[in-house]
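Question: I have long wanted to understand how a fold can be written as tokens. Here is the record:
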Amino acid sequence: MSPKIVTIVGATGAQGKGAIKAFINNPAYHIRAVTRNPSSSSAQALSARGLEVVAADVNDLSSLKKAFSGSNIIFGLTNFFEPFMAHNSPTKAMEIEYQQGVNLALAAASTLDTLEHYIWSTLPDAKAVSNGKFLVPHFDAKRRIDDYIRSEQPDLLAKTTFFWVTFYHSNLQFPIYTPYFIPTAGKYVQFANYDPQTPITTIGDVSKNIAPFLKAIVEKTKGEGQVVLAEIGTLPAKTFLETWAKAKDFEAKFQRVSGKDYRELWPLWGEEMGIMNEYWDWAKEKSWSISVEGQKLVTRGDLGLGDGEFESLSEGYKTFEL
């Protein structure tokens, strides 16, 4: 039997690396790595590992259809923050990301004769969960793509898993989350516009820890519009910081500031991520909850995944550098 073709969008990125880890070195699968620039050093490194590397752009539907042709499994994702940084506008980024997600869905739908599973990396509907109180732009564009698949692509929906990837351990590299060393205090300080007890649900090292989820999704489920929560644990924001500090043998302090000061410190980024932080602070344990009536959230326990299959947050931080 020929190996199943697993097509991975964004193969050189963090989630792409995790998707590759799920299927590489398994003769049951043939990995097709999709990237905008197959001649880049990172793409060439994938080719050297024996992966098929193809060119496609999420802004170009025809290129995606060509790249997806004959696929059995497709892992699709978009990157809100690329247009966000290019245009300095969450509104423009949402518009661009929505069209990219529709392009991915249309291209995946063009392969229905061979497609078994479409795994779409998305996020919760914060606006619905909060009854309209919080609209998080980098969540909401993906929510609109979810709605498009559910309402306009019923045949694709039957083969789709909506895959929620939680907070990366590497997000500490974002200036708004970075702990800053204060020489006169002899410690690192993280400034936050949310309570130190705000629950942070995390995937840890995304390039490693989504792999068991993806393997289980493909081998144990059929999609059917399910929502899968990819996480290795939930801990208070202050404890999250302390986990990093302990792994690096540093001393750290969580310092709450006002939302106004947070946004003044980091214009644009402080607004975008600040809304998400405030949503988590408000929603707490409901932050990653279903807003679609009658739908069940599939957990790692439901997939038969135990703690031993993942790298812990503390282990991940031992080799992590800001």
